[in-house]
Every structure is written in structure tokens, then in C-alpha cells.
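Q: Sequence in, structure out?
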Amino acid sequence: MDVAFAFVGFGEAGAAFAGGARARGFDRKTDDPATREAKLADFARAGVQVCETPAEALAGVGAVLCLVTADQALAAARTAAPLIASGTLWLDMNSVAPDTKRAAAALIEGAGGRYVDVAVMSPVHPKRRAAPVLVGGPHAEDAAAFLAGIGFTDVTRVSGPIGQASSIKMIRSVMVKGLEALTAECFLAADAAGVGETVRASLDATWPGGDWAGRADYNLDRMMVHGLRRAAEMEEVVKTLDALGTGSAMTRGTVERQRAIGALGLVPHDGLAAKLAAIKGATR
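A: Exactly. Output:
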């Protein structure tokens, strides 16, 4: 198979970005008998050639999309560094702190690769390769051209050193993921007190057009499905804020709430009331 690039990590984002691309990839879930078949099916549905080792995935490719969980971003760079060819673009698309990206960059650049700081600025569904992405670092221009060549349609170059694009993503997540956590905390408490409808109506009256029931339904859905991954991302946000010296008290609470709901392992039901009931039942 003539491939244009490789994936390291092939979760929701990898599958969303892969459609129709000439690519191969590796995901460590293929090493685990408990998750292997499901992950092989993910590769097959996307038409991506599955590789049994990182070395097989990285051999001879000119570009790599790294899309692992936040806690594995640096480990992925460490594993890949001795395996990539000189000049390979390493597009680090993980949601991690600027310092984490700079540490990964040192590994990739030290091995002769070309590291690119990439921030994905929206959910990958339904936009897929129309999702807005920021690219930064000394190889941002080449990375932007590569991404456009494989079908990305909303790519913006960010000036400044490696970590600048990540800073934008991390600081934005304070608000986006924090609002999810606050919404969950508010509506779970309102439900427990038996005042859910009154609280919702009051919020809608305060923020006309807010549709707080719909927002809470969506936010709980995202937290139930992705809470553990979001918690890992928000730990990187805590690192970002602490490095800036601006404080991270609210974000630490976001980590706790995201992890607590994600750890329940619930499949989201349709509708806010059903989601609240499922969380209540799982936490009794």
C-alpha cells in the first residue's frame, strides 16, 4: 500500500481524520487481547493499514499524525524518535501543555525529525478534516501545506515558538471543559433537590436563547463518553496555568468532575432526564 502518512494512536480523532486517506497506523490497543478486535475493526472501517509495531507504521513515511491520549503524548514521541526518518514531519495533535510539547519536540528534533505543534480547536465530529486546527513552530508552513494536501480545510499558522498553539488550546479549554463540569454539577444538584425545571427556567431567563437543558444534555453526553480523556487533558491545562503562575483552582475542580463522570463507564441515554437518572443510579 502506497501511504501518504502514518497515525500513531487511532482513536476517535484518528478515525475522523482518516477517511479516504492513504495511511497506515499503530495503536497500542491492538496489543491488548481485550481491545484488539475492536481496534482492528476501527482501522478496517477507516481503510487504514494496521501495523503491529510502531516501527512498522513509521518506516519510510514523511509525515506522522500523533493522536494519543494526553498522558501518552510524550511517551509516544520517545518511542518514535529513534524510528522516524530524517526530515519526517511529526504533527503532535495531542491536547497537552506547552512544556509537554516542548519536551516532545526535543526528542523528535534530536532524532532529525521536524516537530510541529498542532492544536485541534473543535470536536472532530461532525467536521472531521474541516475541524479548525492551529499549527506552530519552525515547520508550521510545511505542516500546513501537508495538512491541506490530505484534505484539511481550516488550517491556521500560529507565530511564535513551539507551545504557542498549545497555549491557545489549553487556555481555551479552561472555559470549554470547565463549563461542562459546572453544568454537570449544577444540574445534578438541581435534580437531587427536585428543582431541576425551576433552575433551568431561571437560567434560560437569565441567558435568553441559552437552552440550558439542551446544553446540559450535550455536556453530560460528552463527559460520559470522554470524561476520562478530558480529565487527562485538563491535567495538562493545570500544568499550563501553573507554569504561567495565574492559578488553577477552578481547573483542578474540572479535572475531578470530568474524571468522576467518565469513570462511571455509562453509555449515554437520550435526553437529559435519562442521563441524570443514570448518573444518580451509578453513584448511589
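The beta strands are 5-8, 23-26, 49-50, 63-66, 89-92, 114-120, 133-136, 155-158.
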